[in-house]
Design a protein that fits this description.
This protein has about 550 residues and is α/β, with parallel strands linked by helices. The chain has three domains: about 110 residues, Phosphohistidine domain (Glucose Oxidase, domain 1, 3-Layer(bba) Sandwich), CATH 3.50.30; about 110 residues, PtsI, HPr-binding domain (Enzyme I, Chain A, domain 2, Orthogonal Bundle), CATH 1.10.274; about 290 residues, Phosphoenolpyruvate-binding domains (TIM Barrel), CATH 3.20.20. The protein has 21 helices and 16 strands. Helix 14 links the parallel strand 12 and strand 13. Helix 3 packs across helix 4. It starts with a strand and ends with a helix. The mean pLDDT is about 90. The structure holds phosphoenolpyruvate and magnesium ion. Phosphoenolpyruvate binds next to strand 10 and helix 17. The site of magnesium ion has 5 residues, from helix 17.
């Protein structure tokens, strides 16, 4: 038996076979080739294989998501035979004697530039398709695997690290647990694991050793321990631990239907964070009172091109319909930083967390933003949607956002499309700037939701993606807690409500303090709702309120 020690980021015990997922990025090295004939043949073979992969993907998508959504794979297959595209690649190989990988990469760059320069959104969207098919051919040429689970039976995934875009594309029904070598507890991959309620361990050095491929392993997401080829004693111990955790989960089931009220009568709303419409089942299973954060960017991450207004409308409509009258707070797209979406073709940045992300992208690409807002407002006619904007730092941003919302509403009125004109608009308070001027911002919006993941990152200057810096990150740092209190106080004064949707909302060492501050809503991963409800029910705040607040 070999034992690896990492950090548990989502509790639970999983037994299963380990499958290692390799990174997909194929680096292109330019090389000079002498035998251009065989290089042309090598390209031709890769092109044929890419066509076969796309045919298989089309068939799979046709079964799973229907003809309209599957069509993209057929378009990609046809693009692989585009005469101009082929001619360019062949010319690079024949005339410039470069290897096939470089010829494809250079052709892709030229085509992408050409499409983007066209003043036509349809043609601009083709840039993404060219990039996609070219990456596929390059991966085949470089013999780099595309990520994905090979085994038919559910497995435990082992990986160096997983980007959010890779995680969302994995088939969740076949994942028993995640174990990664790298990662940090507040990275979006860890958050996704918690949302899906899948046991997860990060920082387990050695897990990607190819000797472990296919081994029987046990993952303890509570302690962060991973056992490879476990001995009988460990198996029994872990079975008992799993049994105990299952019993506790069953006990919590009795709290369903019980209102989260403290012993001294203070109410708080417990909402769920989700990343996909599929997570609505968990919202119900765990008795959430609503959705406090729907990370809509995962719709963009799962897609190979810009999701259309109708595609988004159908998702948001389905979310509110499934919520049966409960509130669903949808955050507009928060891409950038660790959530990179290829087809946005964002320039590389030195400091992406402080770069063009979230609302900054929306305000610089109003077309993309308006498409999402139209879809959201249209869906507001079918249930209780609220719209929330990420990464706000200034009053002018909020005003610009509200102006764009006004324009969208005006368009819908002109087109006689129904929507709820009183849809609540809120902002995330996740930058120190927003927290400090929350008295001013509170006058502009209907609610605040505090994103403690980014608020902590920006207040303490600790990169949430970097595991080496976690020892310097005091998640209960008074600077962050004081900012939260400032925000809640300012919201109260302006008569609006405040929620917390960052990971700190589920930190039960802080529940009493948040209640004492007067936080109105806590939004956590669905699996944390019932444990948090138990904590609220056991709490008596009034007698310790002053003491707790004076310690800040
Ligand atoms: C946050 O920053 O706390 C938050 C909820 O947003 P995200 O984790 O998606 O950045
Ligand atoms: Mg954030």
């Amino acid at each position: 038996m070999i034992k690896l020690k990492g950090q548990g980021v989502c509790g639970g015990i999983a037994f299963g076979k380990l499958e290692l997922i390799k990174k997909s990025a194929a680096l292109v090295h330019r090389e000079r080739v002498v035998d251009t004939k065989s290089e042309l043949m090598r390209f031709e073979e890769a092109r044929t294989k890419a066509g076969q992969q796309l045919e298989a993907l089309y068939d799979k998508a046709l079964d799973e998501v229907g003809e309209d959504n599957a069509a993209i794979f057929e378009i990609h297959r046809l693009m692989l035979g585009d005469p101009d595209y082929l001619e360019s690649i062949q010319a690079y190989i024949k005339d410039q004697h470069v290897n096939a990988e470089s010829a494809v990469a250079m052709t892709a760059d030229n085509f992408v530039e050409m499409f983007i320069a066209m003043n036509d959104s349809y043609m601009q969207a083709r840039a993404v398709d060219v990039r996609d098919i070219s990456d596929r051919v390059i991966s085949i040429l470089a013999d780099v695997e595309q990520p994905g689970i090979k085994s038919e039976a559910p497995v435990i995934i082992g990986a160096d690290d997983l980007a959010p875009s890779e995680t969302v594309q994995l088939d969740k029904s076949r994942i028993l647990a995640f174990v990664t070598e790298k990662g940090s507890s507040n990275s979006h991959t860890s958050i996704l694991a918690r949302t899906m309620n899948i046991p997860a361990v990060i920082g387990a050095k050695g897990i990607t050793d190819s000797r472990f491929e296919g081994a029987e392993i046990i993952v303890d997401g509570f302690s962060g321990e991973v056992y490879i080829d476990p001995d009988m004693e460990t198996i029994i111990q872990m079975q008992e631990k799993k049994q105990k955790s299952n019993t506790q989960k069953e006990l919590l089931q009795r709290l369903k239907g019980v209102k989260p009220v403290t012993r001294d009568g203070q109410e708080i709303r417990l909402y769920a964070n989700i990343g996909s419409i599929k997570d609505m089942a968990e919202v119900y299973a765990n008795d959430a009172m609503g959705v406090g954060l729907f990370r809509s960017e995962f719709i963009y991450l799962e897609s190979s091109t810009y999701p259309t207004e109708d595609e988004q409308f159908n998702i948001y409509k389905s979310a509110v319909e499934k919520a049966l009258g409960k509130q669903v707070i949808i955050r507009t797209l928060d891409i950038g930083a660790d959530k990179q979406v290829g087809y946005f073709d964002m320039p590389k940045e030195e400091n992406p967390a402080m770069g063009v992300r979230a609302i900054r992208i929306c305000l610089t690409r109003p077309g993309v933003f308006k498409t999402q807002l139209r879809a959201l407002y249209r869906a507001s006619a079918f249930g209780r949607i609220a719209i929330m904007f990420p990464m706000i730092t200034s009053l002018s941003e909020v005003r610009k956002v509200k102006e764009i919302c006004r324009q969208v509403k005006e368009e819908l009125v002109a087109e006689r499309i129904p929507f709820n004109a009183n849809t609540e608009l809120g902002i995330m308070i996740e930058t120190p700037a927003a927290a400090i001027i929350s008295d001013i911002l509170a006058k502009e919006v209907d609610f605040f939701s505090i994103g403690t993941n980014d608020l902590t990152q920006y207040t303490l200057a600790v990169d949430r993606q970097n595991p080496d810096i976690e020892p310097f990150c005091d998640v209960h740092h008074p600077a962050v807690l004081r900012l939260i209190k400032t925000v809640v106080d300012n919201a109260r004064k302006a008569g609006i409500w405040t929620g917390i949707c960052g990971e700190l909302a589920g930190d039960m060492e802080l529940t009493e303090l948040f209640l004492a501050m007067g936080v109105d809503e806590l939004s956590v991963s669905p699996g944390l709702i019932l444990p948090l409800k138990q904590k609220v029910l056991e709490t008596n705040v009034s007698h310790i309120k002053d003491k707790l607040l004076s310690q800040l």
